[in-house]
Amino acid sequence: MNKEKRVAWRTKLGTKLLGRVSVSLIISIILFAAMAVPGYQMMTDLIYSPAHLQKQAYKLGDDFQKYLEDNNISIRDRSALLKWIDQYPDMVIYLFLDGSPVIHAGPLAYDNEDSEPLTVQDISDISDGYVKLEYPEGTVEILLFYFGGTVYYVSLLIGCFLVAFIFFLALFLWMIKGRIWYIGKLEQEMQVLESGDLNQPVTILGNDELADLAQSIEDMRVSVMERIDNEDRAKQANNELITAMSHDLRTPLTKQIGFLDIIYYKKYQSEEQLFEYIGKAREKAYQIKTMSDKLFQYFLAFDMEEEEVELELLDGREVLNQMIAEQVLDLRSAGYHVLFTQFEDEFWLEINPDELYRIFDNLFSNIRKYADPKELVEIWNEIHEDHITLTFTNHILRNKIQPESTRIGLKSVERLLEHIGGKLQTTMEADIFLLKMEISSGHFKNSPARK
């Protein structure tokens, strides 16, 4: 328990609170002393002034004289005198008759039977008050020691303490009112977040544990919002994809069913027409297969966000030149005109090679499907300090400038690039299609020779 307390005071918030308590306490002590010391001196000057003490002595003499007269008491009646002295608990009274001690009593009176009796001369110089009265029995002298200031001193100290304590509380609360307000502010914001409104930002003030807690909550809020936003966008993209795929699949499927119905019901007019319908049905079947394969690749790329892949440090110049050259060779074999500018400078990629193969398979599949083989396909590159870019341009076939396509191949590429920290940008001007692929920092590393 004690160890936990010590650790708590070592925190930033605990240190601040301890500092504010110390400052408030020191100022309160100074205030207490500033009130008590002058107050004590003023009270002493007032209560123990010679005039006040002598006034007390005269009053005591009047009371004594009245007591004797009212009760017809002899000055030598000790029991009656003791009863009278008991009325003055804040005094020690010495009573002499014709110079001889009659009685001395009070709460602090000192009586030693072995000592010699005191005389008026013994205590007159140190007493607080003196009064002399004449009676038939003789001359009565009353000397007193006054202790009535004790009550006033105690009252003064209690009053000063209460004022200082109230000041301490007020000052301490004033010094921490900012953090108290901040706690209330955080509570209100937490209630808003609990209600489901994640758009409410969390206020971050100061540099202590409260601010750290608020920062953690704010980071969590932003993270949850980003996750929800990503999930919403993914759901929307998938819904759009499913809707588009349903449309794109329905078109060739409807045509295929029509061709098969013609064959099934023998509505063809010749054997050549039969083979023509069979060929068209077969073509639509392959078209449906191609679209379903691309759909599978898209969802496979989408699911990669949940998978951890092993990264390899590769010679980027060699790997990319080789992968792209293989794809370019296939394009040229299919009758396309391709201008490929290879990488010349050395650089390194920390990446999974399977992902690169899938990216280029999708890119070049898209080129084979939509690019005009009569026009030039250009591929060039740029190397920057923290990323590389690959740019592809080609002319779109006239009958596919506005294709009814879901662009699944490009979406798969975009997913794969996002998974490795890259970006994909596409633009379309007239019949020219431009695609820019970027692999950014974290997966791109300059070679030691370039550093």
Automatic annotation (TrEMBL):
It is an enzyme of class 2 (transferase). The chain crosses the membrane at residues 21-40, 151-176. Keywords: ATP-binding, Cell membrane, Kinase, Membrane, Nucleotide-binding, Phosphoprotein, Transferase, Transmembrane, Transmembrane helix, Two-component regulatory system. Residues 183-229 form the HAMP domain. One of its GO terms (cellular component) is plasma membrane. It catalyses: ATP + protein L-histidine = ADP + protein N-phospho-L-histidine. Its main location: membrane. One of its GO terms (molecular function) is ATP binding. Pfam families: HAMP (PF00672), HisKA (PF00512). It is found in: Cell membrane. Its EC number is 2.7.13.3. It is a multi-pass membrane protein. SUPFAM superfamilies: ATPase domain of HSP90 chaperone/DNA topoisomerase II/histidine kinase, Homodimeric domain of signal transducing histidine kinase. This is histidine kinase. It comes from Diplocloster agilis. The lineage of its organism: Bacteria, Bacillati, Bacillota, Clostridia, Lachnospirales.
